[in-house]
TrEMBL record:
It comes from the Bacteria. GO terms for biological process: methylation. InterPro entries: Methyltransf_11, SAM-dependent_MTases_sf. SUPFAM superfamilies: S-adenosyl-L-methionine-dependent methyltransferases. Residues 47-125 form the Methyltransferase type domain. This is SAM-dependent methyltransferase. The keyword Methyltransferase applies. The keyword Transferase applies. GO terms for molecular function: S-adenosylmethionine-dependent methyltransferase activity. It comes from Phyllobacterium myrsinacearum. Gene3D superfamilies: Vaccinia Virus protein VP39 (3.40.50.150). Keywords: Methyltransferase, Transferase.
Amino acid sequence: MLNRFNDGSAGDANYGVIGTGYTSYRQPDPHIAEFIRSALGDAKSVLNVGAGAGSYEPTDREVSALEPSASMRAQRAPHLSVAIDGVAENLPFPDQSFDASMATFTVHQWPDLAMGLAEMRRVTRGSVLILSCDPDELYRSWLAYYAPEMIAVEARRYPSMRSIREGLGRKVDIVPVPIPLGCVDGFGEAYYGRPERLLEKGARLANSAWSFVDPPAVDRFVEKLSHDLDAGIWDAMYGSLRTQPFFEGSLRLIIGRK
């Protein structure tokens, strides 16, 4: 069932509440963007589904953006195209309208994954790109120890790699995307070497999973992490991550080729 909030948010997250300061913490990371740029190849027209504020949209191609949340559409930069109000399961475009299509950090919010992927495949002549996280690999993050409730939410919401593969067809590549130490796109694992950032409420709100964690569990996370950072406990267990250039976690780029 499609759940749309007052601002037009789709899926299970109310971006009218949690998306207010989204762009302060979620910027397209150049290292991750290069994976997408390479996978787009020579595509000249691109559809961005669940486009949000426009992260990872290429600026050197003709981009059509679709985003159901009014609060997220309002945060798009002036140089980006105006996003259309719509959802993945019912794309308002004719068959084979685009050279390529993309969806970044959004499939976990679609009420009907199979229908959304089928729609992307229908309107796309070439490759369909999905940037998401493999729920089976979320345990790699130190958050699995400090915030098991949040990781449980992530594991429940993110679709399996198998389900995405099945939705895109027979010719699919799944590419692991290492996360850089200074990642400016603040999803769950982006702060693998900068734990202090997750003590900021804004950083947590910019990752929708936190909005599904009970407030007492969030308070326990903040209290324990604060204590362990002050006492040097976090660094004793995970301190090597502070200088580790990349973290190979759950981030994946799934490429469905025509």
